[in-house]
Amino acid sequence: MRPAYGNKGGRPGRPAGGPPSSLPRRYTEPVIRTAWPHDLPALRELFALANDAPYDLAEVTEEKCFGLGIDGQPVVRAYEIGDRIAGAAVLCGRFMRVLVVARDARRKGIGSALVADAEEHGVSVIAAEPGNYFIPGVSMEDGGIRAFFHARGYIETRWTWNLDVALTGLPAGSGVVRPSHEDADRVLDFIEREFGRIWRFEAGKAFERDVPMIFVAEEEGEIAGFAAHDVNNRGLAFFGPTGVSKALRGKGIGCRLLLASLADLQRLGYERAVIPWTDALEFYRKCCGATPAHRFVAFARG
Questions:
Q1: How far apart (Å, rounded) are the C-alpha atoms in residues 224 and 12?
Q2: Looking at the domain that runs over 2-160, which CATH code has it been given?
Q3: What is the DSSP annotation of 43-107?
Q4: pTM metric for this prediction
Q5: Tens of pLDDT, residues 160-193
Q6: Side by side, which strands form the sheet with 214-219?
Q7: Which residues in the chain land under pLDDT 50?
Q8: N or C: which end of the chain has fewer CB within 10 A?
Q9: Domains 2-160 and 181-270 share a fold
């Protein structure tokens, strides 16, 4: 797999309802075409066999390929040879969300062709798409893919960590509550006011579940902070987003919210959780014993 992510640009989404009726279903010569929901089984098979990331990309194929980003619908570009999809790139705005090439089809120019095609569609950043991402960027351990992007004029711009935490033996979060669906607007208005519309978009997914995957803390009747979980990369035990009002930080609210979310992930049957895209290593170590697991780097055109 060659991971990448993104979405802050403004690119029109695909028309609803699937591909035009005139679009050929298969090609005899290699071609890059837009993939559609009926391609999901082939994309899932590709993602399962080509994944080099430390998490199960096949589990979240539909979410990553066709789930909305902060600016709308992503575009999936598939490199097809005959009746086989040998590579794919998921684009959203100026960001690339995912890039994969089948293992037996690498070093044949497919990745380069998909990157060039993505650039024609306005992509200029190889990094996590805020609000809907798989991993925060390219693994620091993958020297080959880092060299691949360097050779194509990209530079490293940001580094961050994903942490790992065991869900057994943790203290329970106290003094926090799970909001109801009727509380959604109040909670999401707080999140947007304090942390912006991207976090509102991501945390909003918590209220799409029968049981909202979010906790809030209150001080004197006002929301002081929140923590969501299992809303991005659903099924992979990802924590976040989370935040506490600036004026109320340093009082242990963030730790209590974190522990409540981790306990809920354990209730859902997970044994370990991922705390993604963070540099707050000491906070998470002290609060729940989380340890650095993987470091990632973002790229942008030089």
A1: 36
A2: 3.40.630.30
A3: HHHHHHHH--SSS-TGGGHHHHHHS-BTTB--EEEEEEETTEEEEEEEEETTEEEEEEE-GGGTT
A4: 0.89
A5: 999 999 999 999 888 999 999 999 999 999 999 9
A6: 214-219, 222-229, 239-244
A7: 1-17, 20-24
A8: C
A9: yes
- Rounded-to-integer distance, Cα 13 and Cα 70, Å: 12
pLDDT at residue 28, as a whole number: 64
Nearest to 218 by CA among 263, 178, 258: 178
pLDDT at position 144, please? 94
Which two tokens mark 42?
């082939």
Among 250, 239, 253, residue whose Cα is nearest residue 166: 239
- Residues 6 or more apart whose CB falls under 8 angstroms from that of 53 comprise 1, 3, 134, 135, 139
CA 147 distance to own-chain centroid? 23
In the chain, domain spans: 2-160, 181-270
Choosing among 3.40.309.10, 3.30.565.10, 1.10.287.130, 3.40.630.30, the CATH entry for 181-270 is 3.40.630.30
> Per the structure block, which two tokens stand in for 62?
């539909």
Tokens coding 279: 């540099």
Report residue 123: phi and psi, to 5°.
-75, 135
Is-contact 217 224, C-beta < 8 A?
Answer: yes
- Taking only the tens place, the pLDDT of each residue in 95-143 is 999 999 999 999 999 999 999 999 999 999 998 889 999 999 999 999 9
Contacts of 91 (CB under 8 A, 6+ apart): 6, 11, 74, 75, 76, 77, 97, 118, 121, 122, 123
Q: What is the amino acid identity at position 231?
A: V
